[in-house]
Amino acid sequence: MRRLLIAIPYVWLLALFIVPFLIVFKISLSDTAIAIPPYTPTLDISAGLGAIREFFAALDWENYIWLTEDDLYWKAYLSSLKIALISTFLTLLVGYPIAYGMARAPEEWRAMLFIMVILPFWTSFLIRVYAWMGILSQEGYLNQFLLSIGVISEPLVILNTNIAVYIGIVYTYLPFMILPIYAALEKLDISLLEAAEDLGCSRFSAFWLITVPLSKQGIIAGSFLVFIPTIGEFVIPSLLGGSRTLMIGKVLWEEFFSNRDWPVASAVAVVLLLILIIPIVLFQRNEQKQREAGR
Amino acid sequence: MALDAFAPWEDPTAKPLIQFQNVTKRFGDFTAIDNLNVDIFEREFFALLGPSGCGKTTMMRMLAGFETPTEGSILLAGQDIAPVPPNKRAVNMMFQSYALFPHLSIWENIAFGLRRDRMPKDQIAARVEEMLRLTRLDKFARRKPHQISGGQRQRVALARSLAKAPKLLLLDEPLGALDKKLRQETQFELMDIQEKTGTTFVIVTHDQEEAMTVASRVAVMDHGKIIQVATPDVIYEAPNSTYVADFIGEVNLITGKADPKGDVLQMHWAEAQPAIVGAPLEGAQAGQDLHYAIRPEKVSISTEKPVEAANAVQGKVLDIAYLGNISTYHVELAGGQIIKAQAANNRRISRRAFTWEDDVWLSWTATAGVFLER
């Protein structure tokens, strides 16, 4: 019985992660073809053992070699990494003070503030990103507002630049940063800060020496929760970013749907997954450490 | 008694280290401290004792700088400390929760305050080692707070607050989290450390035994006021009010009317009972309402009427609380008044002279109890 219970998550993982991954991996080793599905070879088990042997013989690493030859791909990977790093940092910069404010707010306000942070999730993510197009475009609300108060005389070009992508990512992923940091800060005993002050710290140095180290786990968790999905982010760069915003998620999309080159697209996806495994493992390790410290 | 000569509060020329001058502290409508005056002297071990909510913690937090008085001023060595922020005061506090920094080792916790003062590295190391030795924590220097026991944590908190050699050390219920046995040991350790370092200690506690054990003087507080400040023996033997008498230890309280008779004071308290005879109370008028307070251990219990006792009453044993070393007898007198008497169990329990429903005599001397006006 116990084995059965333990088996359920593994079956789940097998069905929804490993099997699809193997399919994608197999396609990445295939060649593109004008057919349905658009790649060869396809496996036909009924044709007997010889056909299966033939099938495996036709698989090769060609697409992976291609990824290293065309500099578009590694540039896209690097650019995604850069955008993900910068936007994670920006999200932390915006999210930390919000989480801090929430944790220090009077008890009766906290539930309300909490709802305000997660409320945007109730609207479709796509609609919210579209709304940002309306705000950031040349005739958008932001430019209209800035022009009307006379801060600028020419409308700013924000939409279709990397700045718009950063704004979009920070906005979208902010709750993922706020919530773990809030959880860490809420547990912080105020008397620790009083003790630090009592021992000669200014308010500011007490913050750096006590509050920040003690919310470290929350900062790390929040950063991974933003960083990991941002690397493969597709919707935000394609809607808010310009033609020069290079992100691997967008490249992946174009290979699949514009070029219909499924094998190369699959290779891109497999490499992306391998890249993401590193931060995911680090994130897991952080969670583990936190659980052990909590005990 | 030569050893006990430390009593700067009796010396009119002594300068107090801390002076509370008409200090009032209000939180909204609530008055936590009500027009309070008290002097605390250097090298004193001063205890603030009272039930929760009496304002003792507020007093301490004002000394540490976490609260400012609404009215009045607090002087430290003659200087008003109201404008001095907590991180600039020569006052350190040991927190009730210990407030040890969980991400730092014991060594770093103790060094924390010294580092903030930008003390040279070798001096910090020397001072931390000294503190570790003083609190017998040498072996644990590298551990984190969650890797040591509650008693050790308490000593780390003490070492950390003493490291900066403050003029004044504040202890907020320092032993509250320890079990009874460890608490008693630690009380003596605290006194020892206080003597060695010569630091002035102010301790907040709701445990009267703890206050009596460690303190040179005890201030009993209630509702933001200090009811009595005195040495532990005076607080116990000569409380100034029924509140203090009742708060400290066990006491029998009897109410009656005053009847001064020459150099003694008598109190009539029940029709069929003889008047209680005791030492006179200054200003007591005939017929005035009075309270008489007497400790159970000062009441003797016997089967025969004692021959030469200033006070003797007869009653029936209602209840016996056996505490091992002593027993407390609850004796009901004819009028319904219950008096507690304590006797040492210097014989085995099977050979006890009295049991339930026995008629007994209670007696005490003229100086055993005190008359109180309020």
Q: What can you see in these coordinates?
A:
The complex is a heterodimer of chains A (about 300) and B (about 375). With about 300 residues, chain A is mainly α. Chain A folds into two domains: about 1-60, no CATH class; about 60-295, MetI-like (MetI-like fold, Orthogonal Bundle), CATH 1.10.3720. Chain A has helices at about 1-30, 50-60, 60-70, 70-105, 105-120, 125-135, 140-150, 160-185, 190-200, 205-215, 215-230, 235-240, 250-260, 260-295, and strands at about 30, 40. In chain A, strand 1 and strand 2 (about 40) form a beta hairpin. Chain A is globular and about 80 Å long. The model of chain A has no long low-confidence stretch (mean pLDDT about 90). With about 375 residues, chain B is an alpha+beta fold. Chain B folds into two domains: about 1-245, Rossmann fold (3-Layer(aba) Sandwich), CATH 3.40.50.300; about 250-370, Beta Barrel (OB fold (Dihydrolipoamide Acetyltransferase, E2P)). Chain B has helices at about 55-65, 105-115, 120-135, 150-160, 180-195, 210-215, 230-235, 240-245, and strands at about 20-25, 30-40, 45-50, 70-75, 80, 90-95, 170, 200-205, 215-220, 225-230, 250-260, 265-270, 275-280, 290-295, 300, 310-320, 325-335, 340-345, 360-365, 370. In chain B, the strands form four sheets. Chain B has a six-stranded mixed sheet, with helices on both faces. Chain B has a five-stranded antiparallel sheet with strand order 13-12-11-14-20. In chain B, a hairpin with a 2-residue loop joins strand 9 (about 215-220) and strand 10 (about 225-230). Classes of the chains: A mainly alpha (about 300), B alpha+beta (about 375). The interface between A and B is medium-sized, with 19 and 25 residues.
In short:
Chain A has about 300 residues and is mainly alpha-helical. Chain A contains 14 helices and two strands, in the order αββααααααααααααα.
Oligomer: heterodimer
Label the CATH architecture of the largest domain in chain B.
3-Layer(aba) Sandwich
The tally of helices of chain B reads: 8
| Overall CATH class of the largest domain in chain A | Mainly Alpha
Q: Quickly count the domains of chain A.
A: 2
**Bulk shape of chain A:** globular
Going by helix content, strand content and strand pairing, the class of chain A is mainly alpha
Rg over CA atoms of chain A: 24 Å
Query: What is the CATH architecture term of the largest domain in chain A?
Result: Orthogonal Bundle
Instruction: State which percent range the strand residues of chain B make up.
Output: 25-35%
Overall pLDDT level of chain A = 89
> How would you characterize the largest beta sheet of chain B?
6 strands, mixed
How many whole angstroms does the radius of gyration of chain B measure?
25 Å
CATH superfamily of the largest domain in chain B, by name, is P-loop containing nucleotide triphosphate hydrolases
Spans of chain B of 5+ residues with little confidence (pLDDT < 50)? none
Helical stretch tally of chain A: 14
Strand order of the largest sheet of chain B: 6-7-8-3-9-10
Largest protein interface, residues of each chain = A-B, 19 and 25 residues
DSSP strand (E) fraction of chain A? under 5%
